[in-house]
Design brief:
alpha+beta, about 25% strand, single chain
Length: about 150
């Protein structure tokens, strides 16, 4: 067990899992089993940057993104979840803005993400943050997800 896999992992991952499970019905991409969710959360915990907005009652929202490879000029937002009881309070916008700011300070050129074509609220949020659709899909033979990009 390395130093990062200590108390933080045992507190952060369960909190993120709880939020994901509570928002499972409204999240377009959460067709994962509980075991797959746990594996995915461990992956982003160790490889991605995670920012969250919390209050005494728990996590209001979190964003996970990759901008840890200086050899690449593009960063990637892998997950954004906002507690449904906190929607339309600017939490998603604040989290995306924070991630983009970090990416800019690390001199990344673009940020990309994939979004389900029916997730209108997310698409509007991302467009409000400067993202546009770019040609093509991110998952081969799957037309449900679209790739969006924001020039940093």
């Amino acid at each position: 067990m390395d130093s990062r896999q200590s108390k933080a992992e045992h507190t952060i991952i369960p909190q993120l899992r709880e939020l994901l499970q509570s928002e499972r019905q409204t999240a377009y991409y959460l067709v994962l089993s509980d075991q797959e969710i746990d594996a995915y959360l461990r992956k982003i915990y160790y490889l991605a940057e995670i920012a969250s907005l919390t209050e005494a009652g728990g996590i209001k929202g979190f964003i996970a993104f990759y901008c840890n490879d200086p050899a690449k000029d593009s960063a990637f937002i892998t997950m954004l979840i906002v507690n449904s009881s906190c929607c339309r309070q600017g939490i998603g916008y604040a989290l995306v803005s924070l991630a983009l700011s970090i990416m800019r300070t690390r001199l990344f050129r673009v940020c990309r993400l994939q979004v389900h074509q029916d997730n209108i609220a997310a698409i509007k949020l991302y467009e409000g943050c400067g993202f546009i659709f770019i040609k093509g899909n991110t998952i081969e033979d799957n037309t449900e997800y679209r790739l969006m990009e924001c020039v940093l």
